[in-house]
Specification:
Chain A: Pfam families: ArsA_ATPase. The structure holds two protein chains of two kinds. By secondary structure, chain A is of the alpha/beta class. Chain A has two domains: about 325 residues, P-loop containing nucleotide triphosphate hydrolases (Rossmann fold, 3-Layer(aba) Sandwich); about 40 residues. Chain A is built from 17 helices and eight strands. An eight-stranded mixed beta sheet of chain A has the order 3-4-2-5-1-6-7-8, sandwiched between helices. The longest helix of chain A is centred in the C-terminal third of the chain and has 33 residues. A four-stranded parallel beta sheet of chain B has the order 1-6-7-8, sandwiched between helices. A four-stranded mixed beta sheet of chain B has the order 3-4-2-5, sandwiched between helices. Classes of the chains: A alpha/beta, B alpha/beta. Chains A and B meet through helix 6, helix 8, helix 9, helix 11 and helix 12 of A and helix 3, helix 5, helix 7, helix 8 and helix 9 of B. Bound molecules: adenosine-5'-triphosphate (ATP), adenosine-5'-diphosphate and magnesium ion (MG) (2 copies). Adenosine-5'-triphosphate sits at the interface of chains B and A.
Chain lengths: ~400, ~300
């Protein structure tokens, strides 16, 4: 069925030399990584020098892109068609490694070692909800600063909410640069600026706070945190500043956001939040990629009629093999038509609220996408603007 | 504990399981920890406060209670319980300590959440019996669940003495006991099944009891096609005409290509089933409800869970 919406044209987007960053976002499992990889490959095969930053690719997809080692630097992807003069690099984000690298780059070796060995740092860098988002932003900033590629395609972490990608870095940044962590540091540098701040809270407040924390966290943990904070001292301010800088990069005219969603209620609800949020942040939305859409070339035969026809065949006195097979195929078709109707209904709800968001539909392939051929097939569909072409 | 890859149906299955376990005269508690009000949405009620309240009667006649744990409130409860410090909440919040403890400090949040669940598990009612016969938790996704459940081992190591240390050990005893089971929800697709296999390995390595897998959203198999080789286009066209369809010619190609896709999908699902079988765990199944999960659908899933061996 035709959509009333403007189609999303991805080829002009990725061909445009002014497009420098494409961010694929959306809720978990909808196809962000697949879309990012497919667009990167297509852009490279159309002549651009591209790097794709993937976050958590399916194992076989990673292998097919030559991402077998996690070394946190972009590697050339073998097997691509370079006749148009393009190149493709890909990397898989290693969040801990990225965090370690920031520490190493901003502290002298002895201090860096102290931080890296600190148990509190180790837990923080391995696991804080938001570390992955922060490090994805950080890596994006690094790749952009290197200026070695003319297009960066970014995948985003499998957050429970697509908005985490925008919010988590600032949350972590403001924690690392914030008041509380300075307060923890106070005993380590009594009389310093932070110390004076604490004094202003009143002595009663201070002893209540550190005393309570000592009891709750255990003094050993509190000591780890304090040592960590003291060692990180030189880096304070930097986290927030860098998170802010990357945030501005995302608002720049060379950036385009693609919101990826499956035609399901929850995924489209997330997509709608994201679209609204991007508008509020004045971040440039290119459009919605509706992925894993079911289509049918026989859509003029509805589910009800297909089922009725199947029953007619099955109830024939002397049903032949062909009758039984045809009945089976009609039932498969009825199932497909039901799904199609559901998906259309869900999509219509999104369209009603966001009629001006350009959309491109990518059909559900019968198999997972785990090689360059599969990515090319997705790329082809991403560039077709007539919406409802069936597959194969 | 119900975990699984994101979006596979953890919340739905946890809720259905809580309903299923509520036999006549029994009580179950359904707990959520991610602050998303998924339970309220499923049961079509207003947002749950941080308080255990009855939300349903299971198909077996027992009562289902629900609790949405709020990490911040849980922290204040703890401060009050262990240190009579509930009143310090405001001061702590002002300087960002509460934020630190509940969102940033690695693991602390998880300690609070698992602690609260274990408290409910061990609680006694006025008659001296268990307050709840079963506690079902909508746990974090597979990628995080082992760390979440094992956090108390980590904490017992970090905070080497003191009440937190003892509390952490007590929680681990409950979680590692034979009374706990971590069930993993999956779909018959490659990534969720892979994640399930990885999750089972991690849970086992951490000594946490794995229950079984729940294959969710199983689509109807439509065996007739799988069993029959696809017909020749002419034969198909003739059969469609016999069925009274006038546009038979135009339908053969689409029906055949959809049939091929269906066969491919069945083969893929069979491969994933084999992968799951290799885990050597009980497998339960729930069908894809074509119109999504409303309250009636949830009860249907609960009855289907009851009908399977546990
Ligand atoms: N058996 C089923 N049949 C049809 N739809 C289902 C079924 N199980 C779950 N769903 C639907 O799938 C979606 C995801 O389910 P649910 O929210 O339970 O997943 P989850 O694993 O808790 O997700 P998250 O990782 O986001 O917490 C919901 O829209 C739910 O209604
Ligand atoms: N259009 C499609 N057709 C078939 N399978 C798809 C399609 N898009 C994605 N997939 C599959 O869905 C799974 C999840 O995709 P992925 O890109 O990893 O999602 P995300 O990055 O959003 O979590 C992968 O196994 C992928 O191969
Ligand atoms: Mg991904
Ligand atoms: Mg959930």
């Amino acid at each position: 069925m035709r959509s009333p919406q403007e189609p999303l044209e991805t080829d002009p987007l990725i061909d445009d030399p002014d497009t420098r960053i494409v961010v694929c976002c959306g809720s978990g499992g909808v196809g962000k990584t697949t879309t990012a990889a497919a667009l990167g490959l297509r852009a490279a095969e159309r002549g651009r020098r591209v790097v794709v930053l993937t976050i958590d690719p399916a194992r076989r997809l990673a292998q097919s892109m030559g991402l077998t080692e996690l070394d946190n630097v972009p590697r050339p992807v073998p097997g691509i068609d370079t006749t148009a003069g393009g190149e493709l690099f890909a990397m898989m984000l290693d969040m801990k490694r990225t965090f370690d690298e920031i520490v190493e780059a901003h502290a002298d070796p002895a201090r860096a070692r102290a931080i890296l060995d600190n148990p509190f740092y180790q837990s923080l860098s391995a696991g804080f909800a938001g570390t992955q988002e922060y490090m994805a932003m950080e890596k994006l900033g690094q790749l952009a600063a290197r200026d070695a590629w003319d297009l960066i395609v970014v995948d985003t972490p499998p957050s429970r909410s697509a908005l985490d990608f925008l919010d988590a870095p600032q949350r972590l940044g403001s924690f690392l640069d914030g008041r509380f962590i300075r307060l923890l540091m106070a005993p380590a540098k009594a009389g310093g600026r932070a110390g004076r701040k604490v004094m202003s809270l009143g002595m009663a407040g201070l002893s209540l706070v550190t005393g309570t924390l000592g009891k709750v966290l255990g003094t050993a943990l509190l000591r780890d945190v304090q040592t960590f904070v003291a060692a990180m001292d030189t880096m304070f301010g930097g986290f927030r500043t860098r998170a802010d800088a990357t945030y501005r990069l995302l608002q720049a005219p060379g950036t385009a956001f693609l919101v990826v969603a499956a035609p399901e209620r929850d995924a489209l609800r997330e997509a709608a939040y994201f679209v609204e949020r991007l508008a509020a942040e004045r971040m440039p939305l290119a459009g919605l990629v509706l992925n894993r859409v079911h289509t049918s070339d026989g859509a003029h035969l509805g589910a009800e009629r297909a089922l009725a026809a199947a029953e007619t065949l099955e109830s024939r006195e002397s049903a032949s093999d062909a009758d039984r097979a045809a009945a089976g195929l009609l039932r498969v078709h009825a199932e497909r038509m039901r799904q199609l109707t559901r998906e259309e209904r869900t999509r219509a709800r999104f369209t009603a609220v966001h009629p001006r968001v350009p959309v491109v539909e990518v059909p559900a392939l019968p198999e997972d996408v785990h090689d360059l051929a599969g990515l090319r097939a997705i790329g082809d569909r991403l560039s077709q603007t007539d919406g409802a072409q069936p597959f194969g | 504990m119900v975990s699984g890859k994101g979006g596979t149906g953890k919340t739905t299955v946890a809720a259905a399981l809580a309903l299923a376990l509520a036999e006549e005269g029994r009580r179950t508690l359904l707990v959520e920890v991610e602050g998303r009000q998924g339970i309220a949405q499923l049961f079509e009620t207003e947002a749950l406060p941080y308080e255990e309240r009855r939300i349903a009667i299971g198909p077996g006649g027992g009562e289902v209670f629900a609790l949405a744990i709020d990490a911040e409130r849980a922290l204040l409860d703890y401060l009050q319980m262990f240190y009579k410090l509930g009143g310090a909440g405001r001061a702590l919040r002002r300087i960002g300590a509460i934020d630190f403890a509940t969102t940033v400090a690695p693991g602390l949040r998880d300690v609070l959440l698992t602690g609260k669940v274990c408290e409910a598990v061990r609680r006694r009612g006025p008659d001296g019996g268990w307050a709840y016969d079963a506690v079902v938790m909508d746990a974090p996704p597979t990628g995080r669940v082992t760390r979440f459940l094992a956090v108390n081992d980590e904490v017992a190591g970090l905070a080497r003495v003191g009440p937190i240390h003892h509390q952490a050990q007590a929680v681990m005893r409950v979680l590692k006991s034979a009374e706990t089971a971590v069930h993993l929800v999956t779909l018959l697709e490659e990534m969720p099944v892979q994640e399930t296999a990885d999750g089972v390995a991690e849970l086992r390595a951490a000594d946490l009891p794995v229950g079984g897998t729940v294959v969710n959203m199983v689509r109807p198999a439509l065996d007739s096609t799988a069993a029959t080789p696809l017909p020749a286009p002419n034969d198909l066209a003739a059969a469609l005409t016999r069925a009274g369809l006038r546009d038979a010619e135009a339908l053969t190609a689409p029906l055949l290509s959809q049939g091929r896709e269906h066969v491919t999908r069945l083969a893929l699902e069979a491969t994933q089933r084999d992968e799951l079988a290799r885990l050597d765990l009980p497998v339960r199944e729930l069908p894809l409800l074509p119109d999504g999960v409303d309250l009636a659908g949830l009860y249907r899933l609960a009855r289907l869970l009851r009908a399977q061996d546990w």
